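Lab notebook page, bench 4
Experiment: in silico fold of construct C2
Operator: M.H.
Input chain length: 574 residues
Purpose: comparison with the prior construct
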Amino acid sequence: ADYAGKDVAGKIVLGSGAVGGVFATGVNQRGAAGALGTGSSGVSSNTPGYTMDQIGWSSVSPLPDKGGFGFALSLRQFLELRGLIDRGEKVVVRAHVRARNHPSRMNVVSAAIPGSDPAAGEMILVAHAFETIATPGANDNCTGVGTILEVGRALARLIRDGDLPRPRRTIRFVWGPEISGTTQFMYKHPELQDKLLVALNFDMTGANPKTTDAYLRMKLTPDSRPSYLNDLIESLLRFVDQTEIRTQEGANAVFNYRLSPVATITSGSDHSVFNNGGIPAMQFNYWGDNFYHSSGDRADQADATELKRVAFTAGATMAYLSTAGAAQARDLAWESAGNGQKWIAEVTRHAAGLLGNDAATLHEEHKAAQTKVAGAFGRAKGSVDSVLALAREPEVAASVKSLVASLEAVRDTNAKLLETLYRERASAVGVKPVAMGLTEKEREYSLLVPRRLFKVYSPEAQKRTAAPGGGRGGGRPQFTPGAPVPRRLPGAASSEVANFIDGTRSILDIYQAVRAECGNLVVGDDDNKFAYALSREAADVDLELVAAAIQNLEKGGAVEVVKLPPPKPVGKKK
């Protein structure tokens, strides 16, 4: 509407959004010479705490056959210019731009504290040094870079001085371009895909909560990568919350942290590189930052206390896991089982809300609710099973078996509760309860098993990626969210479809797992404040879309789909 009746060719356009969007419309589509905008790619100028004079991080994308330029303005500058225009005054601006496209180089730096047993596995900590060459920030991500540097220094010193034993497992550290640099590191060291047990990503790890309004948001591993890591980190965060970890220089605010399932968060960072490669990964991230991706992201917005809390948690995690044996594995199994029992009950409580009072949809709603319980059990069981990667002694295996049995009992109890509720609702709306079974399509997909043709980080996979150096996404493998899968799948469902492919799960199994994790999940306008919630109105996961996503991977040569023989009919013995 603002362009109606206006010829902007050769002029400079002023817009209220980030300059990239203003440029796309004004310059690329309507022939303007340049664009002025405000806001940033992350935090809006409408965000509480956004100051009048901070300038948002943004970029422009000129068409190949056209030039053009853009300038990002502060909110104050934007309002001053718009005020002049609103008063009918003629505004003339002059721009001086000297720019060129040229090859660039962004390095990846790595270090390691070697373990004594190469066969025991490894752990890795990663922090991106920059997203692009021109966008370093204090909280994003000098804090992450400094955090793992300090963790490495402290661990090395404690080991050297004899205060900590030499680790059995190697601890690795990586700094580089976000996502693309970590991806290239994994391509350079494909053997790590089988060696790495867990990964921790540090992206914005020390914001001052009193000035940025940020809190520690821990991104859990996805359901495709259940792990004891979530439970160990949660236990350590509780300890930090109950302990006076303070500094003389810091704000010493009350410790505010939340644990967020991946399915509720749309943002991405280096942890996705590992999760997509089969390695359970979590992220430390202070979010809600008023100064994210802007000129306000300076060192005075970082906080020594929050940095220390994160560094302690990370260092303790590495110290524990690097030497963990049978005793530690059994302790972690108990921790995972306890949290798993709570998670199954929590999911069941929310799944009960999926059962409405409409006779036409009640049966499918019951099926969706039971799928949620099965998915919660799968995550809990996978977390307990994961401790076997640390130790496989008979006593560990026995504990795992016993604890999984306890989870099965919790699952069955909660499934029966939903069954009872379903029968009550069916009686209330006058329909006969229907036993859950497979539809014709579901039976068809239960016989189709996708199998990867090569590992995510392998020479063959590297050939199929986008050319490195194309910004954050350069070098993403075909199995990741960069793959050509339907975007109508909600939230993290598209990447989880690929992540659940393991050569044993059928398309139906994958659909049920992804539906359990992502279907009917409420993701509010402000996903910063996580709360697990389900709703019949929220987007569900569609079986045909999951099948189409896998078919796209098959067409791209990433997977093959094997058809199993149909099961033999069960008949009476003669």
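Observations: The longest helix spans residues 394-429. Residues 440-465+489-573 form one domain.
Next step: discuss at group meeting.
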